[in-house]
Amino acid sequence: MNSLGNPLMPMRVADHFLQNTAQHSLGEPPHCWLGNPQDRRQPHSPLRIAVIGVGRMGQHHVRILSRLQDVVLLGVSDLNLERGLAIARQYQVHFFETYQDLLPHVDAAIVAVPTRQHYEVGMTCLAAGIHVLIEKPIAASVSEAEALVQAAARSRESQPTGGQRILQVGHVERFNPTFQALAQVLDAEKILALSAHRLSPYGDRANDVSVVLDLMIHDIDLMLALVDAPVVKLTAQGRCVNQALLDDVTATLEFTNGTVATLTASKASTQKLRRLVAYGQHSLTKADFLGHSIHVRHHGCQETGAVFRSGFERCYAETQHDMPLYIDPLYAELQHFVHCIQAKQSPAVGGVQATDALRLAYFIEQIVLEGDQWPAPGWRSGNRRLHLNCH
């Protein structure tokens, strides 16, 4: 029987075969093949996806992919054999002890391994000719991120049917309905300043990276999406409270168009907060990503249909923006990934955008921990890996 015949048989680990699965009803996955990856897709066939790394974030990917239309969740892989088998059993999919073994059988993979392994796993997937969604941050250094971008670009030349392999990065807040509504509100506004707060109490997740890479990088990416201009000045301060890595950081970015953005991220807070405030020429807009709400204060009293309040200096109208139906941002992100593959379109957050965010995150860490000034030495290359220690 084909080694993929039993969905819970761990590849190359026969001695860990799960009991009572020999007659599993799933049997051979539909349209499963063992040939050339470039020949495996049939017209109108479902996209075959695997998840590499089924820790906390990887399990969310598995959960959503198992329900997504036009997708077959073929299998999972994880170095933690017990965890990997448990997830495979729960979702009735194949388990692969070695992720390289699953690559010939899928069209795309979700890379949800620790950040230090993003480069190796991502490059291997792209070399195998499959589409890749890598969790944020894209890599552990800017040079690794740039290599991933180049590898995805080279894939166009190696595909006989044409089309570049998709490299998408999991900056999931871009797909948050609150942010998308905020972007629409600000589309016609001149943004003077932005302020973002992303705070959490200390927990047991993502403790292998600093708060800059875990939390702040979300807002770095959002700022770059809202302000279409290069950064010309960067200052930052931070501290280590509960771990050897930075867990409380504030950074200020100044752009060539005059916009100033202040970002605060902390893993040492007493509350959980996800908020972005935009100070515009004609309005002040507050977006609450946890409460899924947007409040807009319009300067001046010419608006109608709003509650007017007068202050000592000026009059303004305050309204609550109508929010679209809430959709799980991760669901929307994965839908976008599938659509980009099927339509052969570039993703909203590809390798280039993710590398831009990583580059700024790198220098925020460098300025805080080493006292460098902007522009920091070697800021264009970023050859050193991130996760610099406080001590």
List keywords for this structure.
2 domains, 391 residues, nine-stranded mixed sheet, single chain, 8 helices, 28% helix, alpha/beta, Rossmann fold, six-stranded parallel sheet, Dihydrodipicolinate Reductase, domain 2
Question: In brief, what are we looking at here?
Answer:
The protein is of the alpha/beta class and 391 residues long. It has 2 domains: 14-171, Rossmann fold, CATH 3.40.50.720; 173-320, Dihydrodipicolinate Reductase, domain 2 (2-Layer Sandwich), CATH 3.30.360. Helices cover 28% and strands 24% of the residues.
Account of the 3D structure:
It is a single chain. The protein has 391 residues and is an alpha/beta fold. It is 28% helix and 24% strand. Strands 8-9-10-7-11-12-13-15-14 form a nine-stranded mixed β-sheet, with helices on one face. Strands 3-2-1-4-5-6 form a six-stranded parallel β-sheet, sandwiched between helices. Helix 3 packs parallel to helix 4. The longest helix has 20 residues, at 351-370. The protein is globular and about 65 Å long. It starts with 46 loop residues before the first strand and ends in a 21-residue tail after the last helix. Mean pLDDT is 82; it is low at 9-41, 302-316 and 378-387.
